[in-house]
Amino acid sequence: KAGVTQTPRYLIKTRGQQVTLSCSPISGHRSVSWYQQTPGQGLQFLFEYFSETQRNKGNFPGRFSGRQFSNSRSEMNVSTLELGDSALYLCASSLPGTQNEQFFGPGTRLTVL
Amino acid sequence: ELKVEQNPLFLSMQEGKNYTIYCNYSTTSDRLYWYRQDPGKSLESLFVLLSNGAVKQEGRLMASLDTKARLSTLHITAAVHDLSATYFCAGMPMKTSYDKVIFGPGTSLSVIP
C-alpha cells in the first residue's frame, strides 16, 4: 500500500508570493491533517479535513487555507508569504475510528526568501 | 486547551543504558501517541495508547499511559545507536476535534557508542 505522498518536496519562494502544497493520503483514508514544523515552534496543527469539509483549524492567520477533494486529496495554500512561513509542512492521513492513528507524508520544505 | 510537555528535551545516553522520556499533558486526552522523527525525515508512528494503564512494547521501546496522572512514559531499554532520533508524544483533546492532534516539543535522543 502506498504511503502518504506530498508534492513538491522542496519549494523556494519570495516574500509576498503565494504557494500551493499537495497531499495524497493513503488509499481509503478520508481524514487529512496539515502541520507546520519549525525549530522554534515545533509541530503545530494547521487544519484537518474529512469528506471535503474542514473539521478543525489551528491558530494560524487566514493566509493559510486548505481544501479537500472528493478523492480525499488535499491542498493547502499560503498567500502573501512571510519569512516566518519557512518551515516543513507535513500532511497526515488517517482512517476514522477509535485509534485515529495518523500516518505522515515526507513533507514539503518551504523556504521563503 | 490541551498542552503537552516532554522532558527531557535533550538526552544523551550511552549504548546499553536504560532511560525514560516523560510526557505530561494538561487536560484530559482521548488518546496518546508516540512518534519518532529522524533528521530531515517525516514522523513515524510508534505507539497509540488508548486507555489508562495501557502498555505497549516494540523492540527496545515500551510506552505506558496513566490517565489519572496525565502522564505517559517512553522507556528505552539497552539503548543502541539506531535509536538516535527525536521522539514526540502527542495527545488529542477529548470530545473534539477529531484529528486535532497536539504535539509536545520533542525529545532529541542521542545514543553514544
| Major beta sheet summary of chain B | 6 strands, mixed
Taking all Cα atoms into account, the compactness measure Rg of chain A is 13 Å
β-strand number of chain A: 11
Largest inter-chain contact set: A-B, 25 and 24 residues
Radius of gyration of chain B equals 14 Å
The fraction of residues in strands of chain A falls at: over 45%
- What is the helix/strand order of chain A? EEEEEEEEEEE
What is the overall number of helices of chain B?
0
- The oligomeric state is heterodimer
Proportion of residues in extended strands of chain B: over 45%
Mean pLDDT of chain A: 93
Q: Number of DSSP strands of chain B?
A: 11
Round the mean pLDDT of chain B to the nearest integer and report it: 91
Shape of chain B: globular
Largest sheet report of chain A: 7 strands, mixed
Roughly what percent helix of chain B?
Answer: under 10%
Name the helix and strand elements of chain B from N-terminus to C-terminus, one letter apiece. Answer: EEEEEEEEEEE
Report what the structure shows.
The complex is a heterodimer of chains A (113) and B (113). Helix content of chain A is 0%, strand content 53%. Chain A has strands at 5-7, 10-13, 19-24, 31-38, 42-50, 53-57, 64-68, 74-78, 87-94, 103-104, 108-112. In chain A, the strands form two sheets. In chain A, strands 2, 4, 5, 6, 9, 10 and 11 form a seven-stranded mixed beta sheet that branches. In chain A, strands 1-3-8-7 form a four-stranded antiparallel beta sheet, with no helix packed on it. In chain A, strand 4 (31-38) and strand 5 (42-50) form a beta hairpin. With 113 residues, chain B is mainly beta. Helices cover 0% and strands 58% of the residues of chain B. Chain B has strands at residues 4-7, 10-14, 19-25, 29-37, 43-49, 55-58, 61-66, 71-76, 85-93, 102-103, 107-112. Chain B starts with a strand and ends with a strand. The model of chain B has no long low-confidence stretch (mean pLDDT 91). At the A-B interface, strand 4, strand 5, strand 9 and strand 10 of A face strand 4, strand 5, strand 9 and strand 10 of B.
